[in-house]
Model the fold of this input.
Amino acid sequence: MNRPRALRGSSRRRRPRARGGPEDGSACSELVLLTPLLMAVVGGFFFAGRLVLARQDVDDAARTAVQAAVTKPDGPEASGLAGLTTSIVLGPDGGLCSRVSTTTDTSDFVAGGTVSVRVTCVVRFSSLAFAGVPGSVGLSASRGAILEPYREIGP
Done:
């Protein structure tokens, strides 16, 4: 009786052949090597996005400050309100700026004249990315506005 080969008794067992060759385990080592690189790229995108948002915040603060300054009747009040507005917009509650300075030019604060505001902000990299990252970057924005030509100026 001929039995199939699989059912025949055999005293010797075959060893399973090793599959693969010189590239065995290369996918694992590639993953180990590429994971930090991919994490660095993702971190770079995150850092760049936060920097763009900080620039937009500074630009918005300058725009808001000049809008507030043109509502006041004289230069010193306009300058004070511009500084106050900037500190509120870029305040410590959610702002990224470690130092903020506001310069208001009210030298042409007459009917039909102009007022301009320059906001400067220093942002630490540790507040943009991860804690402990050294360095900082200075961001600034300037905005100007024309005063109404038919308004009363002065005290």
Residues 58 and 141 are 6 Å apart (CA to CA). The first helix runs from residue 26 to 69.
